[in-house]
Amino acid sequence: PEPVVDARPPPDRYVRHLYVAPDGTLWAALGEGRLAAEDPENQQARPVFVDWRGRGAALVKVTGGRFVSPPFEAALPSPWVWDMVTSPEGFFVGTERGLLQVRPDGSTRVFGTKDGLPSDFVTALEVAVNRVFVGTAAGLAVLGEGRVKRLSDDPVLHVLADGSDALASNGRELRRYDADGPRGAPLPFEGARALVRTDDGATWILGDDVLARRAPDAVERNAFITVTTDVRGARGLLHDSEDGLWVASIGHGLLHLRHAIARPLEFFADATPFGVLATRDGHLWVTSTKGLTELEGERVLRHIHLGHEIDVWAPRSIVELADGRLAFSALDV
Prior knowledge:
Layout: E1 15-20, E2 26-30, E3 58-63, E4 66-68, E5 81-87, E6 90-95, E7 98-102, E8 108-111, E9 122-128, E10 131-136, E11 139-144, E12 147-150, E13 158-162, E14 165-169, E15 173-178, E16 181-188, E17 194-197, E18 203-206, E19 211-214, E20 225-228, E21 234-239, E22 245-249, E23 253-258, E24 261-264, E25 273-278, E26 284-288, E27 291-296, E28 299-304, E29 315-320, E30 326-330
Antiparallel strand pairs: 1-2, 2-3, 3-4, 5-6, 6-7, 7-8, 9-10, 10-11, 11-12, 13-14, 14-15, 15-16, 17-18, 18-19, 19-20, 21-22, 22-23, 23-24, 25-26, 26-27, 27-28, 29-30
């Protein structure tokens, strides 16, 4: 059955970030302390609003329809969580007051400016060949074996793994970094939302209004060539098994790019897509202002209408759990 959605959600309640750890654990960073999930009483997809102890924000583990405080909760420098990653050195949680490391043995450590981070406000995290690149409001750092090395003094909005290196964006420029510092000159590139590699060895990067490609022989020069600017308001980028690219765009709906030609899907012509997910069965799931849509290639297999066309109910993040179920968040649920 189609999900039933409450008509009047509580204001200013949203899930900031969803993260599935390698062990299959689903983590949710709550923006204002409320979360919606499957109702364990009737097994339907009716949102259940949970006021998490009256807090303005929280990090919770979602298991079996229940919301559980992590055992390291007391060690969190702040409940306002911006990003999470996992490396062989543990689970890392970036907050507005420092970076928490939860080691495999359960012990914890908080990194901040006292340890070499450019700022305590952690904005983005990325793992590249076991090193953790830490973007902050005042620069980029790399963390390995318990040591922090500062790489830049430029504010970081996005960090993307690029082999053993990282690409960091301040919203205006894109620069490549290795563990020792910047490599080459910065590229004028607004935003840097996603990066994928295709089977031919090329690297594609999606900015706010541009999709660019770097040839396999241009890695050292970090030379990206613009392929199309028909991606206004780009939100997500995905590479499918047939060597095509999918772009979720505010300005043009959902685009399927093959052989440098972008084809908009008519089904999303009047919708704003926010994300694209490839599931293990080879299908695609798209979150948009229309709801949830399952695709096989460009064919719509299933569409789940959530009952509201208003933007606050549009699903944003979507992830696949270890058992094949999907979890998604909207602005208010």
